[in-house]
Amino acid sequence: MDQETMMFRKGGEENKAREVIRDVCRAMAEKGYNPINQLVGYLLSGDPAYVTSHNDARNKIRKLERDEVLEELVRAYLAHVKDA
Hints:
The chain is mainly alpha-helical. Helix content is 62%, strand content 0%.
């Protein structure tokens, strides 16, 4: 059995994903929701009901695949940790 690590490559949409995540988090905060908790709920379940429809946030997040959102979140976290 081959034990090589598989490489996952997805690319190019980080600016779009970053903008959507920022807009969605802002809309959730404006409505009084905790954006972290709501995003985790959405990412784990895939249920867009975790995202408010305020300022079209639900439609915006649905335009991205969940793996795109995760990729951008990991990218931002690693950049932050690297710089810390």
